[in-house]
Amino acid sequence: MSTHRTYLDHNATAPLRPQAAEAFARALQAGGNASSVHVEGRAARARIEHARDQVAALVKAPAAGVVFTSGGTEANNLAIAGCIAGEGVARLLVSSIEHPSVLEPSRAAGVPVREIAVTAQGVIDFDDLAVALAETDDRALLSVMLANNETGAVQPIAEIVRMAREYDVVVHADAVQAAAKIDVDFDALGVNLLSLSSHKLGGPQGAGALLTREGVKLRAQMHGGGQETRRRAGTENVAAIVGFGAAAEAAADSTGNGSIVGLRDDMEKAIAIRLPDARILCADGPRLPNTTCLMVPRVQAEYLLIALDLEGFAVSSGSACSSGKVARSHVLSAMGIADELSDCAIRISIGWDTSEQELERFVAALAACCERKKSAVAEAAA
Q1: Which residues are catalytic?
Q2: Is beta strand 6-7 parallel, antiparallel or unpaired with respect to 313-314?
Q3: pLDDT at residue number 160
């Protein structure tokens, strides 16, 4: 078992950025309740409002529309339940590849739910979307993720919004995986609601945000206090919010993702040479610059995750919100991937701290693991 570790699972949780760690530690030590009127309380409030400005700036949105939450899951739940109660939404339209934090609250919301199909490239099927919109007589909410956490496929949200506007449909985009990886412009996208998460972009766990466009009626789902302009009750997690803001600013100030794209593409080329039968999903369309969803036929994901972990490489299979289980992906099923291939899918997601040397070692380890597995299968069949 290797003692040297290489972390290639940024889509699950990105490593904490130094700027975020420093800001988090300072805020944690300073303490203070942002609802208090004394000096310490006002200082905590000022730190939260500064973080609100930083998070809003990352996605070019008005700071007044930022509602801090405990993470992306709560932001998605608030978008759905808050619009049902506030906007009088009576029908939900969701893409079939959404994160469970959208699919599960939608199915539990008590209103009709229509799942929209996607193409083999993991992009929304516009023909099916047009049918679903035309079928909608009641006030509806459409939720489509900006970028998929498993495949990296990026959705044409601005075009989806233009279609939805013809039917006065409220549009929510889960941008948890997209923010800090691609340019996210709240105004240009045109969505009414946008979800973010701190730990996906190098901030601490325990903070997220729902960005709301002016005029959207969002009813709080947590009651008790008047925090977040009565849109989300509860004493704010000041240190996590401050770290979130610092990570957002650091991500916005970075030189871009060109180097990450280069690292990913070089890795994929090396994989194609070492493993000619490997298949990379969504490689022919818009995709997150850091994400590779890889399938090697006859080499199951469960085996690869364990074998690569023993070699010192952290990768994943599907969503990290599944209690550590290696389960068949609903995303790949929606894309029409056969079960025997879907069972072989692993996700490599790199980030700001990934090096070329690490990926070279990873490709060598991946090839060795696959070759051992194929040899064992061949011997067993002989």
Answers
A1: 321
A2: parallel
A3: 98
